[in-house]
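Duplicate of earlier report; Smr domain-containing protein input re-posted below.
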Amino acid sequence: MIVIGLGGNLKLPLPLPCNRHQPPQKLTSKLLSPKCALTKQAHRFLSTLSTTAKDPSASSSATHKLIQKFVATSPKSVSLNILSHLLSPHTSHPHLSALALPFYTRITEATWFDWNPKLVADLVALLDKQGRYEESEKLISEAVSKIELRERELVLFYCNLVESHSKQGSKRGFDVSFTRLNRVVDDSGSVYVKQRGFEAMVSGLCEMGQVCEAEKVFDEMRVRGVKVSRFEFRCVLYGYGRLGLFEDMERVVNQMESEGFVVDTICCNMILSAYGCHCELARMVLWLRKTRASQISFSIRTYNSVLNSCPTIMSIMAQEMETGVETLPLSIGELSGILSGDEALVVKELVESNSVLEEVMTWDSLEGKLDLHGMHLGSCYLMMLKWMEELQNGFKDGKYVIPREITLVCGFGKA
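Output:
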């Protein structure tokens, strides 16, 4: 957050964290590469662990002693932060992922440890991906024994397994867990168990790229008396969109509407994101116009999805960061002058809507504030241009007064 007092006061606290979203693959990796949120203490430990693990003279027992000492002397939050990082498919320390099991084992010995089925599922999926099937099956058996006959907890554990395997992209583990989950759902008379189970099946199949199979689950749900929810429809329409199967995506949107579900901002953002991933700016223009005509509000994610797909904007942002030369257009008029074709049209649609600016901007005699929290770099840039244009017009018309201070809230996102 940046606070600028008009008397010359400037404060620069640490930037606020923000939600992170997967950018289209075509964007500059340096500009939009995902970063894992690690504490400073966790960073230091992983650096030490990396050095020890790479040292040919160091034994495995030395590595395990290092882990044991760290877990014994560190706060719960830091230890869990490191474990989550090691389990993540997007970890920046993949060479240390083999140490996730011994790290977890040490955590289970801590006085503060509470058994967590989601953590176990993530560990099982990682072990399966590494081909360590005996160890993964042992963890599953221990978990099922711990849960015993508590049906709701059992179905949630298998749901976690399906989700974790799908995120790791582990087909073997996913297929096994999917079969087990399906068996639990089939044997249960509980509506809750069936709903949770089908949610995980549809979501997992879509994550694995098996969207046609996910849509077929809809028929199975109806046979078993379970209504297809907005969640399942969203999973399938976005799954088709990510694969570039836009006719199927639009068909599912129509089906969703025919079953009484309103297309909302979240659905619109999914559709825009799908078009953006395939550089379909022309389709994006038409959908933005349809969204505005339907009086569906844009959101910060709308800005992120659209602007991450704009090649000229992303190129000039990357150039500015890499060279430090100030070449960015400093008004919406100047920006429009360097854009062309469909890219110019999608930016025009965003600029002509004030819904997001009204949401993130406040202005009175005490404080003027612009909250960029959650925005990616391109979104921050365009929003600041809109903000400056709004202020220029507002001061000219007497709508705004000069506040005591101006606050700019900056989220640390993909940049």
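Residues 81 and 396 are 50 Å apart (CA to CA).

Merging into the original ticket.
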